Amino acid sequence: MPLNVLLLGPQGAGKGTQADRISAEYGIPHVATGEMLRAAIAAGTELGRTVESIVNAGELVPDDLMISLIRDRLARDDTDAGFVLDGFPRTTAQAEALDAMFNEIGRTFNVVFSLQIPDEVAFERLRRRAKVEGRADDTDDAIHRRLDNYHRETEPLIEYYRTRGNLVTIHADRSENEVFTEIQRALDHVAVTR
Ligand code: AMP
């Protein structure tokens, strides 16, 4: 059975880092919508040109564009054994569209992780990353906008998935290894019970 994993959490909670580790450990692709958009922008595709100013400002890309991006990505056969999703869904409309896609192809999330971290810690981590990676959306203004958008649009999804019964909450204000150990414990439990 495939292993389908979702990581929810604010920017700076470590979703990308943990998703990479899950991907390496369990042999499933890391699907990160932010990375896909940055690649499209760098390549100057039509999608890239459409979303560039939105992404750089730290705003959310319209749901219809994101839903069709993820629909195409999950149709590729490297996801047959599962995937770890990072950055999508970010709104209730996206979560509902994903549910509809999952229903069509008979999938569910085995585990949804909610990585929790105080805003001050997230903010400081993002400012540090800005110095290292120089991402265009790691300016103070864009960071504030992204954290605001997270609380308004994405945080309600924690309840959405809690009621569906597969939510695991993780305190992410700890070392990368400590967080990964806890994630692994939950995934290894799923691996024997699924
Ligand atoms: P991330 O790397 O996940 O922080 O995403 C970087 C940026 O890409 C976000 O601030 C949004 O502008 C855009 N983005 C990524 N995923 C989504 C999504 N699911 N819905 C809307 N916008 C998104």
Quick overview of this protein structure:
By secondary structure, the chain is α/β, with parallel strands linked by helices. It has helices spanning 15-26, 33-43, 46-57, 63-74, 92-105, 119-133, 140-154, 156-162, 176-193, and strands at residues 3-8, 30-32, 82-86, 111-116, 167-171. It has a single domain (3-193), classed as P-loop containing nucleotide triphosphate hydrolases (Rossmann fold), CATH 3.40.50.
Summarize the structure in words.
This protein has helices at 15-26, 33-43, 46-57, 63-74, 92-105, 119-133, 140-154, 156-162, 176-193, and strands at residues 3-8, 30-32, 82-86, 111-116, 167-171. The protein is α/β, with parallel strands linked by helices and 194 residues long. The chain has a five-stranded parallel sheet with strand order 2-3-1-4-5, sandwiched between helices. The longest helix is centred in the last third of the chain and has 18 residues, at 176-193. It starts with a strand and ends with a helix. It is globular, with a radius of gyration of 16 Å. The mean pLDDT is 95. The chain is 60% helix and 13% strand. It has a single domain (3-193), classed as Rossmann fold. Helix 1 (15-26) packs across helix 9 (176-193), helix 2 packs across helix 3 (46-57) and helix 4 packs parallel to helix 5 (92-105). The structure holds adenosine monophosphate. Adenosine monophosphate binds at residues 11, 33-34, 37, 54-55, 58-61, 66, 87-88, 90, 94, 137, 146.
